[in-house]
């Protein structure tokens, strides 16, 4: 039997569950690494005396790196493998976090955050593909959704630790902690995360059959005598194939939807600490509100994953996008009440992050094996432009003396227009077995 069909049809073994678990943990690591600058931003602004518009640019630098890393390194992961890409990205991320703790000015800090973002972007594309390829058919959408839920879980756990660190140390301690945790994942990936069977069969490196059988044995599945016949290979580059007939509409619409929604998502995540501090609360209290946003995000991600077992993915994404727009608008009208801020941001995080989970599941479901990391990387990378634009636009709106209600309403439009893009997307045809 084709080993890809075995993986798709049989119950998931311990190695498959462990591989998905490692990917969840890696995404949790990404969640903390991305938001570390948000936890540190009040201290940075106070120490260096920078204005909101300049702070918005600093907040967006790793997001620029993520965009570039997702587009470029996603295609590299389709060429060299998911596992080596993940290991390389961990090295880059650990170095970037450690260097950020040594920064003495805005320019140097921005460069180090850009470096960290490159690693995070490549990681996101690789772990999305890896999770899909270690899951069976029945649980694939759920596994990808739970993997994506790791992002807010990491922000919650890491944010709670960051709040405690900030109560005793300065903002640099957040980056030191992030560097140590990131480096600790290198041996975990080395020993627990083999290369995916789908990638090995598609690329056929040296000793592919022996490697496939070793991994199948670790999964508890029977070995195979020979690899399936190779698939016809396109002479087109991966990037060009994303815009070939049959895929171009999907690529454009999911990228546009991700771009628009991520503007709304990162407005909430990047500006909450500064907004709360400006209301007169301590930085540690502001970090606590951001943690509640991510508690809501983690809850929304897990619930969304369960709903994918019962409800079609596309209408589910649209419904959550509309609720995201509503809750972000409401956030702008909450006054200086810490309890109400925590409640509303938690609900806003519930819907905004659930949409991210849904889009990742849509990427994994829609792109074929040979383009899965590259397609995900392109959609995430181009869409990450929204994560760059969102905080910067909000910063300039605040600097132009627009109030929080107006800024929140404008930024909520991203989720609304993203729902229109997903509505325009035809339901993707199921991929053939082994894809």
Describe this structure in words.
It is a single chain. The protein is mainly alpha-helical. It has one domain (3-226, 238-423): MFS general substrate transporter like domains (Growth Hormone, Chain: A, Up-down Bundle). 80% of the residues lie in helices and 0% in strands. It has helices at residues 3-9, 14-48, 52-80, 82-100, 106-134, 140-168, 172-192, 197-203, 208-219, 238-241, 248-278, 283-307, 313-331, 338-366, 369-399, 404-423. The chain is globular. Residues 428-435 have low confidence and may be disordered.
Layout of helices and strands, plus pairs?
Layout: H1 3-9, H2 14-48, H3 52-80, H4 82-100, H5 106-134, H6 140-168, H7 172-192, H8 197-203, H9 208-219, H10 238-241, H11 248-278, H12 283-307, H13 313-331, H14 338-366, H15 369-399, H16 404-423
Helix pairs in contact: 2-3, 2-5, 2-6, 2-7, 2-11, 2-12, 3-4, 3-5, 3-15, 4-5, 4-7, 5-6, 5-15, 6-7, 6-12, 6-14, 11-12, 11-14, 11-15, 11-16, 12-14, 13-14, 13-16, 14-15, 15-16
